[in-house]
Design brief:
mainly alpha, three-stranded mixed sheet, 22 helices
Length: 575
């Protein structure tokens, strides 16, 4: 079927080409509309990565053809960089203590979720292909190769969802471990499948030993490359951590050097980048760890371009009925196989309940390695199953790249891990003054004990000091408005006159409010007021200037720390 939208924009494309600004303009279109699509889908409670991919589909060869094959090919370096960044940040999560704790679990689930779909997809697609074609060698080969390819899981879309929803817990840890390793299993399965398929299809026999030797070179060479560059980066950053810009420059420079060299000598740049991150998080000096935060802040625009490009490559108009049936069987068999295999592996290794129930939802995405293996099949078997496999993987990638992130969100949400991977800074950004509590009571309240009237005796405040933690009080005037504040230091000064101090009105010892804020004021703005006015207490007032309580810096610090402790306890209870 021909793309019905491909003829709509030829004049625009000709204009862009004639001006010589085509590439830059199209990158701007991708960045802007990709970001807009991501935000729109986020508002619809759908992972933003789906919005990026849908935008790419609309702009690419399945839609308006704004992004043609030449442009997509020119953007390949951005895709390479994006995958290296993803590998690097995944590697940062592979801490040795976590591997020791979950190593047996990782291996059991990995083997289950990789090998089970190999058999399920292989048998289903091979059997149905034989019913359609009657060609047994062709059908066996098609089933073997598709079964091997389906073992791979794409880390990009999956980790983007985990990052977007700030997930943390046993399910998140397992996901990161599995997507980091199952590509290697897919490569080995493909080597075995290609070795069996080649003589069946009348080609030259492919030596399994040579195939495995090539895979060993790819895997162990990439690991060695990553560890070497990680060591170099750790030495450099040890002496340059005083400048964030320089740290980011060296980190990205090492990452790109590793990626470029891997491409030149035919190693896996994603695996190499992963082990740079692995080395830095496990063996580098602790003071270099903030480097990951800097690199992570650099990634969003690269991810937008990458996922828009992924969508732009997908052509939904090229399937025939036969390949549509095979593609549906591939997706269904892959989903069934990964569900059975992951749950079986989780059960045998006694993984937490959340992992057993919800991991299958998080292993559906397919992209880079699967597409790469389909291209390898196209090169290895150009006159038989190769072109058909490329067609099937391209079509199914379209489906699972849309559904995969949505299922990941469902899984981690049901597992209760959304919002647990937060720092004190994250909590600070999302909290308003009225949400801060002391012993379960909001600090911003018209009935707060931290509010006294200007005619109240000082003795009332002294009595409150014995039962409450406040070091400062708001003073309310006769008109109900804020007129001042009283600190513990002022009370101590008044006490020097003796017993009569208890009867002194608050009016005599109050001072001018240092700063005020509204209950709806975000905490970062409140912290800025603490700094700007060199004070430890801010008066909370409503829109009319009436006292609503007192915000003390100590109280805010204690509140945020309590929230972090609560999250840690939740994680411990998850196992």
């Amino acid at each position: 079927m021909e793309n019905p939208f491909g003829h709509l924009l030829p004049a625009f494309m000709q204009f862009v080409t004639l001006t010589g600004a085509r590439f830059v303009l199209l990158v701007g279109v991708m960045m802007f509309f990709g970001s807009a699509g991501g935000r729109l889908f986020q508002k619809l409670k759908i992972p933003q990565v789906v919005g990026y991919i849908v935008t790419g589909i609309l702009l690419g060869v399945s839609g308006l053809f704004v992004l043609g094959k030449e442009t997509i090919a020119a953007l390949n370096p951005i895709s390479t960089i994006a995958l290296s960044l993803i590998g690097f940040l995944v590697g940062a999560e592979l801490k040795i203590d976590v591997i020791k704790k979950y190593g047996k679990q990782f291996v059991g689930i990995l083997l289950g979720e990789s090998i089970t779909p190999f058999f399920v997809v292989g048998i289903l697609t091979g059997a149905v292909s034989f019913l359609f074609t009657g060609n047994l060698p062709y059908s066996i080969s098609l089933g073997l190769l598709l079964g091997a390819i389906c073992a791979a899981t794409a880390p990009a879309a999956t980790t983007d969802v985990l990052k977007e929803y700030r997930t943390k817990g046993p399910l998140t840890t397992t996901i990161l471990g599995i997507v980091a390793m199952d590509d290697a299993v897919a490569l080995i399965l493909y080597a075995v499948a290609a070795t069996i398929a080649s003589p069946l299809l009348g080609g030259h026999s492919i030596s399994l030993a040579s195939q495995l030797a090539a895979i060993a070179y790819d895997i162990f060479g990439s690991i060695a490359m990553g560890m070497a560059f990680g060591f170099i980066l750790s030495l450099i950053l040890k002496y340059t951590m005083d400048d964030d810009g320089r740290v980011l420059g060296f980190s990205l420079g090492i990452l790109l050097l590793s990626t470029g060299i891997c491409d030149l000598i035919h190693l896996d740049h994603i695996l190499s980048a992963m082990f740079i991150g692995f080395f830095m998080t496990n063996f580098a000096h602790k003071k270099t760890r903030p480097m990951f935060r800097l690199v992570e802040r650099f990634t969003p625009p690269i991810y937008v371009l990458f996922f828009v490009t992924v969508g732009a490559k997908l052509n939904v108009w090229i399937l025939t009925p036969f390949f549509l049936v095979i593609a549906l069987l591939y997706v269904g068999g892959r989903t069934l196989g990964k569900t059975i295999g992951s749950r079986l592996g989780a059960h045998l290794t006694k993984a937490p309940e959340s992992v057993r129930k919800y991991l299958p939802f998080c292993l559906l995405s397919q992209a880079g390695v699967a597409i790469g293996l389909s291209i390898a099949a196209g090169n290895d078997f150009p006159d038989s199953v190769g072109p058909q496999i490329m067609l099937i993987i391209t079509a199914t990638t379209f489906v699972v790249q849309i559904l995969g992130p949505i299922c990941v969100k469902y899984g981690v949400t049901k597992a209760g891990e959304v919002g647990l991977n937060v720092t004190e800074e994250d909590i600070l950004k999302k909290t308003l003054v009225k949400e801060v509590t002391v012993n379960g009571k909001a600090v911003a309240s018209s009935t707060s004990y931290a509010i006294v009237n200007e005619n109240d005796p000082i003795g009332k405040i002294i009595a409150d000091f014995a039962t409450h933690e406040n070091m400062n009080y708001e003073v309310r005037g006769r008109d109900g408005l804020l007129v001042g504040q009283v600190s513990l230091a002022r009370i101590k000064d008044a006490m020097q006159i003796g017993a009569l101090a208890d009867m002194m009105p608050v009016f005599d010892v109050m001072e001018k409010p240092a700063a005020t804020c509204l209950p709806e004021t975000p905490l970062p703005e409140a912290y800025q007021l603490f700094a700007d006015h060199d004070t430890e207490a801010i008066n909370i007032v409503d829109s009319q200037g009436k006292p609503m309580g007192i915000l003390e810096k100590y109280t805010v610090d204690h509140y945020i720390h309590t929230k972090i402790v609560e999250l840690e306890h939740r994680l411990e209870n998850m196992g």
